Amino acid sequence: MKNFAELIKTLDSSNKTSVKVDALTDYFRHASDEDKVWTIAILSHRRPPRPVNTTLLRLWANELAQIPLWLFEESYHIVGDLAETIALIIPTTKEHSDKSLTEFLQEIIALKKKTDEEKRVYLHQNWLALNYYERFVFTKLITGSFRIGVSQKLMTRALSKAEGVDEDLLAYKLMGDWNPDKISFQELILDQKSSDYLSKPYPFYLAYPIEGEVSNLGNPEDWSIEHKWDGIRSQTIIRDNEIYVWSRGEELVTDKYPEFGLFIGVIPDGTVIDGEILPFLEGQIGTFNDLQTRIGRKTVSQALLQKTPVIIKVYDILEWNNQDVRHLPYRERRKLLEDLYNLVKDKNIPLQLSERVPLKSWEDVTTERMRAREMRSEGLMLKRNSSPYLVGRKKGDWWKWKIEPLVIDAVLTYAMRGHGRRSNLFTDYTFALWQDNEGKRELVTFAKAYSGLTDAEFRKVDDWIKKNTLERFGPVRSVTPELVFEIGFEGIALSKRHKSGIATRFPRILRWRHDKKIDEANSIDDLKNLIPE
Amino acid sequence: MKIPLLAFNDKGIYCHQADVYLDPWKPVTNAIITHGHSDHSRWGHKNYITHRMNVPIIRHRLGDINVTGKEWNETFTINGVKFSLHPAGHIIGSSQIRVEYKGEVWVFTGDYKTEDDGISTPYEVVKCNTFITECTFGLPAFNWLPQAEVMTSINNWWAENRAEGKTSILFGYTLGKAQRLLKYLDTDIGKIYTHGAVENMTQVLRPMVDFPPTTLITRDTKKEELLGSMVLAPPSAHGSVWIRKMTPFVTGSASGWMAFRGARRRRAIDKGFVMSDHCDWYGLLDSIKATGAEKVICTHGYSDIFSKYLRELGYDARTEHTQYEGETAEMDAKEESEITV
């Protein structure tokens, strides 16, 4: 545990990628095989299930700190992280623990089935046997993920350096389902299996936002234009009578979308397609809000399948007849894709083709982009006809040209302290718009946003909030309605879950309207007028 | 209603009987000053009274002012009110102010810490009826390690950076923290350089404390000679052009706020050392108890939370709002004025 805590501390205390990779590489070179498997698991978000709920954790931590619960809560709101708060308030003793990371994790797994009293004793013993930072790491293993700026990619790079295994192969080996408690380092990393490759996805090719004028892209004839769909980017693999659906986050999501099981036997084996998972209700594309109900679920009920069916809007093909076709120009891949689509389109499977929009001039493209909301897309994709399917985000061949966000001027009404890098600063805001209530104008909450201001602006607003607090509700403060912000968002839909009756997609602060008084902020009716017919 | 011996008004903490203010934040005629930090010793008062050791400090910061220096425990009487200054242990020359009238005793701490830092006169418990305390770090999450342990990790960090051929830049308040760090930096590791603001203040304090030698960084300082050295700088220098010229370097900060991971990450500092010139949680609770005070008034810091807890412990405790800042989490506001000195 000491080595692992030291690793986390180094990762957490540096902003430099090179320092992080070096620390990880060094750790992988020295750690035991079982500790390595667990470290990989934790850094790729495969924690054991939480053995104790946070209410009990707080209670038991408080017993050691000997402070009232309300004082613990106040401290937590200010520190901004539960494990960190617990580690800070528990006194450090002269004891120490030499248990390994694996021993701790096995104990944490076993803890889930123990009685509350056994759990309490276990936590008390270990909290007191660890130093401050180990205590923090130990508590984090129980409560949640470490946010220490280590991506899976970064970890894979370090592991590759330490073990001399190809980075891409490792990335693929670490994907999907594996249980750190059941698998050995040898099996996970070192062994080579042919079935390994069955579910293997290709790395995604990502577009850049367009820069400058679209007409600078040259001859429009060299380009294909499609709408940019607002769902989940996915890669679907059909090999050996099996289907594997990967999300862009390199997560295997096959089980979340059972309707795609229909592809088996219809789409030929040895096919890999790139497309967008979209909600499709009553013959048209739904909003991202609809899709949200499907994203979080591991198991999907029949009722939900009925209520929010999904389709794949397919736009590229990466493997055809068991051959990797990524090197082919887009124009030729598109031909293969359209052939495939024609083959399956009458077979009643949830697959649609993302149509290319025939356009003659850049003016036409500009006009088409204006139709995005009507088409239920978030803008256009521009792909060079001669482009191969590349790896990662590369400039030059694929551009996204999103529509301008919807904007509205809203009043800051509540603020909450942020977490992580922003703990102890009021950076999470709630915004309200005007609404008539029996002849009286009142402010109604419509969205929360916590990005879009610079650090300096956040500090100014934080300072203002501290001086203009009306009431406190735990971590939340209501503030004098005085500041007006321009809020941008990508989509908008009616919603029963929201007080305002409206849900906005990805709201964020565009700018602080120093020039506006709250009377000049918009109303709920103004917002409703933005909903597409 | 009886006028309290000390009252909080829009100018500061006011003693009506003596017509004197303690650490006023607006210009007044008579001001007794606890210490030299800019939120406690402001410009524009007619007469200043402070500890002898603080005189050169506030003269340096405020220029030609009318100031009288007192010794520790030296009683001076103004219209029947007895005043005396007692060590607060916060920085060099920092005092608590004891105020006595007709047998009633009040103590105002200014800023204070209980650990002996070896450069400030150590904190002294002063018995009183009413204790006006700061509570910058008045949360149970703040528990300081002994200074010697923190200094060992700072020196180890410096040695590691030097081994990698990098310059160590350590941020600390110009007045107080910078000198506390300087005093215990291990000069066997390398040479210590200073930012102008730190150098000027250190020169003011050298007659009072024996510090290791420092070299001011000037336009002529070669980048190569800085490699592996230690640079002491005010927090506001972080991210400045001045710093960028020292590449390759590693940054560290010594502050009580470094106890929070978020505070360090927000400032994008490589290494945080938890070291404060204020009391930690137990420092506050223990000193309040030791004063024997029945009434406690909490000023700057987590005062609402802290006074609520004190009431649960049985004290007659309340919060008063002041314009003192303590150790600001963002570490810039207070320093801005000093960097131009």
How large, in whole angstroms, is the Cα Rg of chain A? 26 Å
Q: DSSP helix count of chain A?
A: 19
Task: Name the strands of the widest sheet of chain B in spatial order.
Answer: 7-8-9-10-11-18-19
The amount of beta strand of chain B, in percent, is 15-25%
What's the main sheet of chain B like?
7 strands, mixed
CATH C-level of the largest domain in chain B: Alpha Beta
As a whole number of angstroms, the C-alpha radius of gyration of chain B is 20 Å
Q: What general form of chain B does the structure show?
A: globular
Shape of chain A: globular
CATH topology of the largest domain in chain A: D-amino Acid Aminotransferase, Chain A, domain 1
Tally of discrete structural domains of chain B: 2
Total DSSP E strands of chain A? 22
Unreliable stretches of chain A? none
The biggest chain-chain interface is: A-B, 32 and 23 residues
Termini separation of chain A comes to: 58 Å
**Mean pLDDT of chain A, rounded to whole units?**
89
State the fourth-level CATH superfamily of the largest domain in chain B. Answer: Ribonuclease Z/Hydroxyacylglutathione hydrolase-like
Helical amount of chain A: 25-40%
What's the topology here?
The complex is a heterodimer of chains A (about 525) and B (about 350).
Chain A: H1 2-12, H2 17-30, H3 33-43, H4 54-65, H5 69-79, H6 82-89, H7 101-111, H8 116-129, H9 132-143, H10 152-163, H11 167-173, H12 185-190, E1 205-206, E2 208-209, E3 223-229, E4 232-239, E5 242-247, E6 271-281, E7 284-285, H13 288-295, H14 302-307, E8 310-320, E9 323-324, H15 330-344, E10 351-353, H16 362-370, H17 372-375, E11 377-384, E12 392-393, E13 398-402, E14 406-417, E15 426-437, E16 440-449, H18 455-467, E17 469-473, E18 476-479, E19 484-489, E20 491-494, E21 502-505, E22 508-512, H19 524-528
Parallel strand pairs in A: 1-12, 2-13, 8-10
Antiparallel strand pairs in A: 3-11, 4-5, 4-6, 6-7, 6-8, 8-9, 11-13, 14-15, 14-18, 14-19, 15-16, 17-18, 19-22, 20-21
Chain B: E1 7-8, E2 13-15, E3 20-22, E4 30-32, E5 47-51, H1 55-62, E6 67-70, E7 76-78, E8 81-87, E9 95-101, E10 104-108, E11 130-135, H2 147-163, E12 167-171, H3 177-184, E13 192-194, H4 196-205, E14 215-216, H5 223-226, E15 230-233, H6 241-244, E16 249-255, H7 261-266, E17 271-274, H8 281-291, E18 295-301, H9 303-312, E19 316-319, H10 333-339
Parallel strand pairs in B: 3-4, 4-5, 5-6, 10-11, 11-18, 12-15, 12-16, 13-14, 13-15, 16-17, 18-19
Antiparallel strand pairs in B: 1-2, 2-3, 7-8, 8-9, 9-10
